């Protein structure tokens, strides 16, 4: 889906005028964002929208913190899709399963050691638990996406 289509769908939930008002922008600009714009087509009527600009920032810098921040603001978390491997499916499945179990084990170990010393989880310990949790989420999502995209499907069957 194009960025202008995503913006149009989102804007339609409250109306372009209401969205423009919340953003302190003119409705005309928001309408332009919801139209297709093309660098190659000077006759396109749309304007580069914030989604396109964010994508350009990520592409220019190679820094995914912009995406992570936006996902966090939306109440979520960004996880990169796994790359398809040309390796042995069975070996790769075993490797990823082991990684998932390892990350889960490390999270549990971190929680346990945080509680064992004084029966509380202090700020520094909570930060460490958060980091372990984020790593586990990345590992788990990568595993599930690989399953969904057929990474472990034997093509000979």
From the structure above, extract its key features.
2 domains; mainly alpha; 157 residues; flat; 66% helix; single chain; 7 helices
Provide an overview of this structure.
By secondary structure, this protein is an all-alpha fold. The chain has two domains: 3-73, no CATH class; 89-148. Helices cover 66% and strands 0% of the residues. It is built from seven helices and no strands. It has helices spanning 3-14, 16-23, 27-33, 50-61, 65-73, 89-118, 123-148. Helix 2 crosses helix 3. The longest helix has 30 residues, at 89-118. The two termini are 33 Å apart. The model has no long low-confidence stretch (mean pLDDT 87).
Compile the SSE list and pairings:
Layout: H1 3-14, H2 16-23, H3 27-33, H4 50-61, H5 65-73, H6 89-118, H7 123-148
Helix pairs in contact: 1-2, 2-3, 6-7
Brief characterization of the structure:
With about 160 residues, the chain is mostly helical.
Count of folded domains: 2
Helical percentage: 55-70%
Rounded radius of gyration (Å):
22 Å
Summed over residues and divided by their number, the pLDDT gives a mean of 87
SSE pattern, N- to C-terminal: HHHHHHH
Stretches where pLDDT is under 50 for at least 5 consecutive residues are none
Structural class computed from helices and strand pairing: mainly alpha
Coarse shape: flat
Percent of residues in beta strands? under 5%
Please give the number of β-strands.
0
Terminal CA distance:
33 Å
Count of helical regions: 7
The biggest beta sheet reads:
none
């Amino acid at each position: 889906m194009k960025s202008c289509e995503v913006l149009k769908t989102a804007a339609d939930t409250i109306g372009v005028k209401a969205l423009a008002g919340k953003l302190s922008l003119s409705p005309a600009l928001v309408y332009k964002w919801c139209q297709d714009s093309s660098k190659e087509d000077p006759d396109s009527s749309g304007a580069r929208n914030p989604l396109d600009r964010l994508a350009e920032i990520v592409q220019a810098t190679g820094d995914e913190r912009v995406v992570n921040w936006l996902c966090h603001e939306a109440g979520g978390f960004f996880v990169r899709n796994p790359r398809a491997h040309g390796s042995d499916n069975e070996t790769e499945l075993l490797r990823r399963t082991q990684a998932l179990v390892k990350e889960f084990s490390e999270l549990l170990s971190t929680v346990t050691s945080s509680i064992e010393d004084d029966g509380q989880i202090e700020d520094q310990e909570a930060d460490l638990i958060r980091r372990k949790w984020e790593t586990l989420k990345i590992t788990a999502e990568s595993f599930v996406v690989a399953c969904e995209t057929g990474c472990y499907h034997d093509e000979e069957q």
